[in-house]
Amino acid sequence: MKLKNTLALSLAAVMAAGLTACGSSADTASAASPAADSTAAEAAADTAAPDGDGDPTTLTVAMECAYAPYNWTQNDDANGAVEIRGSSDYAYGYDVMMAKKIGEALGQKVQIVKLDWDSLIPAVMSGDVDCVIAGQSITAERAAQVDFSDPYYYASIVTLTKKDSAYANAASVADLAGATATSQLGTIWYDTCLPQIENANILPAQETAPAMLVALNSGACDIVVTDHPTGQAALTAYPDLVMLDFGGGDGDFQVSDEDINIGISMKKGNTALKDAINKVLATMTTDDYNTMMDEAISVQPLSE
C-alpha cells in the first residue's frame, strides 16, 4: 500500500454525464428521430463497459510504474506485463495484475499510463484515465476529490534498518527514539509516522520508494518507514537490511484504517465503473490478494 497524503487539489473537473456512445456524429443525430436517439442511447448504456475516459473498449489505468512490488517498469512483456502508453516500455506488478483481472471481467483491454504521483488524481478528475490503481490509501481527503472502490489490498506499516544498526532490535516505536529517518514524499509514512518517533532527526522526504531505500542502504539515515510489501521486496534487493514489524497495538505507529486500506480511485460520480470494480473485488479474498502480492514480489526486478 502506498500510504500517501496528497495536498488538496483545487481542480475544477468538467464531467460529462453518462457514457459516450462510439461512432455517433452531429449529422447522424440530426437525421434521426428523438425516439430513435433515445433508443440508441439506452442500448449504448446497456452494452458499453463502464468508462471514465471516453473509450469504453479500454480500461485506462494510471500508476507510477516505479513502486515495486505494486508496479514497476520493465523493457519487455515478461510475465504478462502491459505496454505503457506512449512508450516502448512495459509495466507490471500487483497493480497491473489487478488491472488485468478487472479488465478481463469488464471485457476491456488494459492500457497503462505512467504518471508522477501528484498527477494521478488530476488525471482521473480530468478524464484522461478511467482509474488509478497505484496503492492509494482511501483517505477522507482523497475521497473528497475522487470515488474509491472497496479496498483491493490491506497492508501494515513496517520499519527498515540495517542489520548492524543500533535500531536492529527495536521492538516498538519508542525504541526508535533519536534515529535519523526518512521516507517517501507525500506519504503517511513520512507525514504521520516519522513525527511519532521521539527526538527523531527527520531528513527531507525522498521523491520515490527506490530513492528512500538507496538513502537507507547508503547510510544516509538509520531507518525508513514504509509498508509491508515494500519492505518485503526491499529485503530481496538489500540483504543487509532487516524489517521491523511492531505488530499493531500501542507500541506501533498509530494510524487509522483509512491509512492502511488501499483502493482504486475513479472520477466522482462514475458509479458504473465503481460498481463493476467492486463486483470483481467481491469475488476475491484476503488470501487471494496475498497470493497475488507474493507472486509480484517473486518476479519484481529487485529480485533478479
Could you explain how this protein is built, in words?
- This protein is of the alpha/beta class and 304 residues long.
- Helices cover 32% and strands 19% of the residues.
- Strands 1, 5, 6, 7, 8 and 14 form a 6-stranded mixed β-sheet that branches. A 5-stranded mixed β-sheet has the order 11-10-12-9-13.
- Helix 6 links the parallel strand 10 and strand 11.
- The radius of gyration is 21 Å and the shape is globular.
- About 14% of the residues have low confidence.
Instruction: Give the termini separation.
Output: 22 Å
Q: Largest sheet at a glance?
A: 6 strands, mixed
**pLDDT averaged over residues:** 85
Overall shape: it is: globular
What amount of the residues lies in strands?
15-25%
Number of strands: 14
Compute the CA-based radius of gyration.
Answer: 21 Å
Write the element-wise H/E pattern from the N-terminal end onward: HHEEEEHEHEHEEEEHEHEHEHEHH
Helix content: 25-40%
Low-pLDDT residue intervals, each spanning 5 or more residues: 4-47
**What's the helix count?**
11
The class by helix and strand makeup works out as: alpha/beta
